[in-house]
Amino acid sequence: MADKGLLDGKVAFITGAAQGIGLAVANAFIAQGARVMLADRAGDQVAQAAGELGDAARAVTIEVTDEKSTNAALAGTLDQFGRVDLVVPNAGILLLKHAVDTTPEEFRQVIDVNLTGAFITARTFARHLIDQGEGGRIILTSSLFGLRGGRENASYSASKFGMVGLMQSLAAELAEHDILANCVCPGQMNTDMIRQLFRDRAQLTGQTEQAVRGALEGRIPVGHLGPLDQLAGTFVYLASDLSRYVTGQSITVDGGWQIG
Known about the structure:
With 260 residues, the protein is α/β, with parallel strands linked by helices. The chain has one domain: NAD(P)-binding Rossmann-like Domain (Rossmann fold), CATH 3.40.50.720. 47% of the residues lie in helices and 14% in strands. The protein contains 8 helices and 7 strands; from the N terminus they run E-H-E-H-E-H-E-H-E-H-E-H-H-H-E. Helix 4 packs parallel to helix 5 (154-174). The mean pLDDT is 94.
């Protein structure tokens, strides 16, 4: 294996890939020999990200809540690479708001993007993986808050809990086709989304952003936000032959948050 990457010859499709976790996973997959289609609703941004990653990357604009858009993204991936092996439904949004103050419209939007979008992506690509007949991997980005609730987190947590249930059903149904499905559940990672959370929580509580961040990091045993390259390594593991007997699992990457 010294002369080969763990993902040599594989093609990956990643949503929410213009920045943050999705982009970090794309970079890690390419480093291990994969070719990657980066998909995001921010067309210019995702095209720029793919260009910076080099010849192994391409970009496509997608609305994950729209089945036609997802079908077109699959067609574009096959046109560019001829196949797809690894699917990462990662696109998501965050709403930091007390449950009693969240409107039904706001709740539905978070569920639609995070959960329904993951379902449409997984369903579309699972059908192709079955037809392709060579197995594959579906790795959903859930969250620590897909395993436990939290303050100001009702809609986000509900969507991420739903992703865990979706993943477990996919794992049970697709195993006979050698398609493995798992979730990665990040804790507090060093992303634009977490920095927005600091701003939003500071506004909600009347604290400074620095105080909000300090209080949060103080609860993490390792003492800091999670580096994206460390999180991306978990996706590489689940995408590789190292995890051939792993399906239906939710792997938490949180620096010890839950035990701290």
